[in-house]
Amino acid sequence: MSLTKKGEFWYGTTSGDTQAELRNYSVANRHEAVRFASSKCDCGCRTFALQTDEEAGVAIRTCSDCGQEHLMGDSADYVEEATPEAHQCVCENEVFELMSGVSVYKGTHDVRWYYIACHCVECNLVGVFADWKCEAGDAAAFLAKV
């Protein structure tokens, strides 16, 4: 399926749809995401509850199967000063497949901006639920922790 707009929201069924919406959002934000990674728990599950604090630069995903919490990206560096809040879809579901994307500084591999896109497992809504400026160093190392 490709992205489909219903009302004011976008819907899709594949990780490619989620990545496309993340890219569209990032282009509009003037910090185009150029590297992407999907979240996966150590238990193999790919669905999570998500909490974020954009001001502190913290994201926490909680596995919907095993309940393991994971600090995403460089969140461990900032979690002490954070007040994360749970995300909920417009359909009131709280379980998502997560796709992270980063923009990098020109001519480098250093993270400049971090985006977290969600795909609702109930209604197929896709959208960027959180983003912030992020000075996290190497993009590959950062995305390995999402």
UniProtKB/TrEMBL annotation:
This is Uncharacterized protein. It comes from Comamonas avium.
